[in-house]
């Protein structure tokens, strides 16, 4: 659990930087497990603190986490560039439903819509990410509302609800495939 918490923290920081480009909320939970994101060694106190759930963190159901893990990373391809947010439930979950402003734990992959070239993936990093929806791009904060734990959703996000003319795919729409592991609505 400790390594997952540290890796998820690192992944959340990377996701926040990637998905929100400076519009993300800050968090003190950005410790590293000594991987590529940081070279600091963890103390026993840091490790103990990491084993404790933070207030507001979603409670992960091991069965849902296993189902998402067994499903594996999605394959991304180019899609038609949308004029508005397109939401598709590839797999409908059965757990708690995401409400506006929730904190979510997800596995995801993102690509430029016009090329299908992946630019970010928690699957590639090897750890789920936990973050608040009020600190990410508008396409995510709107696109995950109503999704249920255990589900897989594809978001095709027009540039104006993503990065506009900045970010990893300037001026392009984005496609994200998101697997919802857990949600905390308050």
**Which CATH C-level class is it?**
Alpha Beta
* Total DSSP E strands: 6
Helix percentage: 10-25%
Report the principal-axis shape: globular
Number of domains: 1
Summed up, the helix count is 5
Main β-sheet, in a few words? Answer: 6 strands, antiparallel
* Distance N to C terminus: 23 Å
Q: Which structural category fits the helices and strands?
A: alpha+beta
Low-confidence runs (pLDDT<50, min 5 residues)? 1-53
Order of helical and strand elements: HHHEEEHEHEE
Strand content: 15-25%
> What is the architecture at the second tier of CATH?
Roll
Q: Which topology does CATH recognise?
A: Chitinase A, domain 3
- How would you state the average pLDDT, rounded? 76
What integer value in Å does the Rg equal? Answer: 16 Å
Comma- or semicolon-separated keywords:
single chain, alpha+beta, Chitinase A, domain 3
Tell me about this structure.
This protein has 186 residues and is α+β, with helices and mostly antiparallel strands. It has a single domain, classed as Chitinase A, domain 3. Helices cover 25% and strands 22% of the residues. It contains 5 helices and 6 strands; from the N terminus they run H-H-H-E-E-E-H-E-H-E-E. Strands 1, 2, 3, 4, 5 and 6 form a 6-stranded antiparallel sheet that branches. Strand 2 and strand 3 form a beta hairpin. It is globular. It starts with a helix and ends with a strand. The N terminus is likely disordered.
